[in-house]
Amino acid sequence: MLAAGAPRVVALCGVQGWRWAWAREVRKLVFALDADAAGQQQWRALAREAALRGKQITVLEPTAYGGCKDVNEAWMAGMLTLGGGAAVRKSPEGRELPEDLWDAWEERAAIIECDGGLARSAAEQAAWHCLTAASPL
After folding, report:
1. Which of 25, 67, 75, 90 has the fewest C-beta atoms lying within 10 Å of its C-beta?
2. Cα distances (Å, whole numbers) of residue 12 to 9, 56, 101, 119, 128
3. Structural domain of 49
4. Are 30 and 52 members of one domain?
5. What are phi and psi of 28, to 5 degrees?
6. What tens digit of pLDDT does each residue of 61-96 get?
7. pLDDT of residue 134
8. Distance of CA 3 to CAs 35, 58, 65, 82, Å?
9. Is residue 25 one of the residues assigned to a domain?
């Protein structure tokens, strides 16, 4: 996350690694937990605890990881960067997909995944090529 441009980062050691004392003076938090079931279950529990402590929490959704299991894998694959606090999707060639095309990309990827029986990462890549062939970036 530091490499992606986030100014303040705390790495959690497992899904039980968070300590609220670390964020005593922090009002807003962004959690970027693993895309697996344990990570997704943990952010929901953390969000409830944050609300009880009067904190605002935002979660970086697993779809922002471009089919990768976590933020690090997404960053290493060139699928995630942070700019102005928002994730930017990147193609395997390193070209950015404008935010106004994200919904269309995700929808096409879901259709290709379901109808074509492809793995999510392959469906996302196919959807990427469909969008970029239709309107060159």
Report:
1. 25
2. 10, 19, 32, 28, 32
3. 1-78
4. yes
5. -120, 135
6. 777 787 888 888 888 887 775 544 445 555 555 566
7. 52
8. 20, 20, 15, 9
9. yes
